[in-house]
Design brief:
Distance between the termini: 37 Å
Structural class: alpha+beta
Strand content: 15-25%
Shape: elongated
Radius of gyration: 35 Å
Oligomer: single chain
Number of domains: 5
Number of helices: 27
Strand order of the largest sheet: 14-27-26-25-15-23-24
Helix content: 40-55%
Length: 758
Amino acid sequence: MKREVYKISGMSCAACSSAVERVTRRMEGVAGSDVNLTTGRMQIEYDETCVTPEQIIRKIEKAGFGAQVYVDDKEKRRKEEAAQAEELSSAKRRLVLAILFAVPLLYLSMGHMMPVPLPLPGFLSMEQHPMAFALAQLVFTVPILVFGRNFYVRGFPALFKGNPNMDSLVAIGTMAAFLYSLVMTVMIPGDMHHVHQLYYESAAVVVTLVMLGKYMERRSKGKTSEAIKKLMALAPDTAIRLTDGKECEVAVEELLPGDMILLRAGSRIPLDGIVTAGEGSVDESMLTGESLPVEKSEGSEVIGGSLNYDGMLTVRVTRTGADTTLAKIVQLMEDAQGKKAPISKLADKVAGVFVPAVMAVAFAAAVVWLVAGKDFSFALRIFVSVLVIACPCALGLATPTAIMVGTGLGAQNGILVKSGEALEMAQRVDTVVLDKTGTITQGKPEVVEVWADDGLWQADGSLPLSGQQNKLLLLAAAAEAGSEHPLARAVTAMAGRGKLAVPEVSEFKSLTGYGVYVRTQEYGEIYLGKAELAQEHSSNAAQWYAGAQELAAKGRTPMYVVADGVTLGIIGVADTIKETSAAAVDALKKDGVRVYMLTGDNERTAGYIGAQAHVDEIVAQVLPQDKAKIIEELQKEGKKVMMVGDGINDAPALVQAEVGCAIGSGSDIAIDSADVVLMKSDLMDVHRAIRLSRLTIRNIRQNLFWAFFYNTVGIPVAAGLLYPLTGLLLSPMLGGFAMSLSSVCVVSNALRLKWKKL
């Protein structure tokens, strides 16, 4: 199956997007298609052996819309944004001109109905010169219909092709009112009373108000994609490339992996890379949500789009184009906005049959009133009002606008949601399963305790290491200097922080499963490792046994240090929990979520870490291949599970869970398998992701309620249901205004999400 994105043109409402989905889904070999009205894009999955892009495009064009394969590149995006800006500007000009003609038309046609009649020149008097009165209205109306010609250009072809939409409703209603008025105008010389049956102002003002609504809607929709635009604006257009020591400013598109670039203080980093020289602090807040600058030095990774605060950095480019972190974030957001949440399917189904049903209701209501004895002008008013007020735009905008704003809010906080389905599912989560290493914990061992003859040093203490403790660490660092083992790196890193002068080693042996042996000139033979190694090569290992057991009980790995046949002490190394892990778990539990910890570690270590993190349940000694089975068992119990992990071994479990959540610092495979990516690698963002989901879905439900409520109430009123009881009859103009207002209200409600705090 191939997944492809198409740019769809000519859509104006939910009925349009439903029509495109309907015709493409019926094609042989198409597994599914999702059309986003807000972005104008369609994601389609199809079998290349059964259907081709050309066939897909022809099918869409036959339905009355334009389609082309969407190709993402910077220049194309700029042209597209320029075209959208020009389209918005053109819509504004047409709207202003329409208003300039509509105001005098209303004055002319409705002025005499005011409590105090508005003055008119004598030659335009309705009673004395009815033909001039009618022709003047015609003169003002025609330009307005020309300015709003898109309704007719799109609406009638869609109707004739069997896919009526909102434009069809407006086109039929206003054209019926206009043509009826035109006939009445022609008949005025024979009977001047026909001047009272003119509906030029209804046709013109409805078109003007719908144009106003469309303009406001378009402006609002533009704001929903601001997050993506801001992200894309982060990447600079040029960079300083270093070639043989010479600086040359080049377009970012010219850079290749392996190129060296120079970053001065205050400049944006163009692409992902690794620092080869220099030191500085980099602001990554727009990409990770982390407000504090990150210190960078030789060997540090930098992300394209981040800002180099201070210092000068030389960077080797590692990723370009679509492979950069920034490009992937943008792609993830666009994919998420293009994929529909299950909650939107109801709206889509309704919109697909809504327009034909409304046309039937409008026709039936007009016939009923004619049969009831009302004249044709009354029935026409009913017909036009029902068609205009029933526009399903609000219905079509309810879901995609909220999802766009929601995913944008998530991205601003370092939470990347890959799909609308994941965004909806997250609010149903009642169980969160956390991997231990790298998720709850830092993911790398650190020296946390040093036991020597002169006392105990702990990492959370304020006192510096004593002389004996420093000696112990010095000897351990000498023993581990030639090893790449994570425990070795923890020891050498601690020695480096203490600026200890590590002695040179003349001999090194790795004692597999036990530890290491080295020989130094100053301290002789040194052994570092397990208790068995110390027992074999020292006489006093037993006196440290209780301390080692105490370390193990706290989830530490005890390392015995032996020099010249004497055990000098033990070093405790552990993978410590992240600062926010316990607070994040507490926040999840407060939200009614049960928290599990899943780990391959022994029960003692798992129990200690689990207690520190405040988790509800601990599942220890789990093999990597069994993690997905644990998730499946929880699901069989009826639980909705979110799995949070960072490693390759977590990938099957991430896929199995209702929502897979990957730590941003984790493996590429884990990130690819997940539905949500936490860029800050902070567990508190799990709580924020669930809150984001709940806020977004609540917003969608509000939008759908008001869209359904509006149409449920508006259509019967427009059909004249209240007229026999109250004499109340909705005019087409008020119907047009209400329709436009409903769309704007839905989009405005969605935009409220931008100001929510996660």
